[in-house]
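Side project, low priority. Logging it here so it doesn't get lost.
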Amino acid sequence: MKFHLSSSIHCRKLKMNNNIKVKLDSLRRTSTALLMAGLVAGCATTPGEDSGPVSVEDRAQARWNHLLANEVAEAYAYLSPGYRSSVSLNAFQNMVGQKKVGWTAASVVSSECEEISCKVRIMLNYRLMGAVPGVQQFDGKQLITENWVNSDGQWWHIPPN
């Protein structure tokens, strides 16, 4: 009987060990699949996410998209660190808020770059309200040029003085 009991216990241990192995193998496969899915999803980032270097044109367009959406704090983040050290967010918000012109659209046209600096040309659509007597509003377009500088792999806007 002892032999049978120990044999029975040994068989149960083997079955339990096999069940544990099967469960561990299944867990490993599931974990590997989830890890791979996460890696693949990480590779499929959108342009606004941190997916590596972003072109100066993409940064310029993103900054203008924030300004057009009246997201001044977000647009402020695109200004060079040196500019932001001398002009506070509050002061920048006041400058943007005091403009007598309303921007209605902006699109990057081109850029000319040297090693660490770029001149980005942007077609800016704007609206002036009551600027001319007898005219309620005036809609116009203007091609502007912005200065951008690359520091540590990131493009920053440098506003005119």
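Brief comment: The chain has two domains: 1-38, 56-158.
Revisit when time allows.
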